[in-house]
């Protein structure tokens, strides 16, 4: 007797979640004809249609809506079985991961190494973007997991707190801005290099400077933190950036921290995913991110 396979159930769930055979094929790292074959075989075995297809539209039939949670439960049971057996290396799939640039320049490397050690058969497709752009991709199912900073305009069911990352003021030693606490007049002698417009640090910097209308501050936003950091290293301005991404430059004496008594709020990061649809390896990846981020927040001498 021909048996229903896990690959057929995976295809069913992914087509239902993504409303697209093409996107399901991309998600499962296969071809659209393979997905169509799996769905057709499953429908033949069940002797009922699971999807209505017309004019490029894919919709669940009443039978499909009834069977979808059962198919999801079967796949979830397999995840639970692997977890209970402690056989994480048997997880297979593609993790579509979205991160902000701060993570790239701080603890992305340790996270990916820890992920590879725990989940060796999981491939990672990486997207680096502003947090504001990662959220729509997460909700449209273009991403499985995001590691991003708040605040979040829309909540999602799955997640893990990654901690709060403080910002500090820095400049190249050549600017000679050391000593007692600096005044805003002293800061304003140089361009202030900052996060992109629309981000929380940029808005707080803008509001802080606006509260001192007698001081003319040149705020220079950048969508690329690497460029912002390089400009700071080159002595082209002062910057207020996450401390975790500056540790190397500070330790090597390429940058110095500035004693200015106001800073924007720490960046609060969170791992986010859809708990209702995420496979077990996504949940595990979020927990690995939590552990690695906590390690990154420890003082260097304690790591």
What can you see in these coordinates?
The N and C termini lie far apart (57 Å). By secondary structure, the chain is α/β, with parallel strands linked by helices. It has twelve helices and twelve strands. Helices cover 43% and strands 20% of the residues. A five-stranded mixed sheet has the order 4-3-5-12-6, sandwiched between helices. A five-stranded mixed sheet has the order 9-8-10-7-11, sandwiched between helices. Strands 1-2 form a two-stranded antiparallel sheet.
- What is the H-and-E element order? HHHEEHEHHEHEEEHEHEHEHEEH
Strand content: 15-25%
Overall 3D shape? elongated
**Which strand order spans the largest sheet, edge to edge or round the barrel?**
4-3-5-12-6
The DSSP helix count reads 12
From the helix content, strand content and strand pairing, which structural class follows? Answer: alpha/beta
- What integer is the average pLDDT? 90
Uncertain spans, ≥5 residues at pLDDT below 50?
none
Q: Sketch the major β-sheet.
A: 5 strands, mixed
Task: List how many beta strands DSSP finds.
Answer: 12
Q: Give the N-terminus to C-terminus distance in angstroms.
A: 57 Å
Fraction in helix: 40-55%
Measured on Cα atoms, how large is the radius of gyration?
24 Å
Keywords:
303 residues; alpha/beta; five-stranded mixed beta sheet; 20% strand
In short:
The protein is an alpha/beta fold. Helices cover 43% and strands 20% of the residues. The chain starts with 5 loop residues before the first helix and ends in a 6-residue tail after the last helix.
């Amino acid at each position: 007797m021909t048996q229903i396979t896990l690959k057929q159930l995976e295809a069913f769930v992914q087509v239902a979640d993504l409303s697209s055979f093409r996107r399901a094929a991309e998600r499962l790292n296969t071809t659209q004809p393979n997905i169509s074959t799996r769905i057709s075989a499953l429908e033949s075995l069940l002797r009922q249609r699971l999807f209505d297809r017309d004019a490029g539209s894919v919709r669940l039939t009443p039978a499909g809506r009834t069977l979808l949670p059962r198919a999801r439960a079967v796949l979830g049971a397999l995840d639970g079985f692997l977890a209970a057996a402690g056989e994480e290396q048997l997880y297979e799939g593609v993790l579509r991961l979205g991160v902000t640039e701060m993570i790239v320049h701080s603890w992305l490397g340790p996270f990916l190494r820890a992920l590879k050690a725990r989940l060796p058969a999981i491939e990672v497709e990486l997207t680096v973007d502003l947090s504001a752009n990662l959220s729509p991709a997460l909700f449209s199912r273009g991403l499985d997991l995001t590691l991003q900073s708040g605040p979040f305009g829309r909540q999602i069911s799955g997640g893990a707190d990654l901690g709060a990352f403080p910002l500090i003021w820095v400049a190249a030693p050549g600017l000679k801005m050391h000593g007692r606490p600096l005044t805003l007049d002293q800061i304003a002698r140089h361009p202030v290099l900052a996060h992109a417009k629309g981000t929380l640090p940029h808005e707080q910097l803008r509001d802080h400077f606006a509260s001192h209308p007698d001081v003319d501050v040149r705020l220079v936003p950048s969508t690329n933190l690497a460029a912002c950091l390089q400009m700071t290293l080159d002595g082209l301005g002062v910057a207020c950036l996450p401390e975790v991404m500056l540790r190397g430059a500070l330790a090597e004496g390429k940058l110095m921290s500035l004693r200015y008594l106001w800073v924007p709020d720490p960046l609060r990061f969170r791992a986010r995913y859809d708990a209702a649809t995420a496979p077990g390896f996504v949940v595990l990846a979020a927990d690995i991110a939590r552990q690695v981020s906590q390690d990154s927040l420890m003082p260097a001498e304690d790591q």
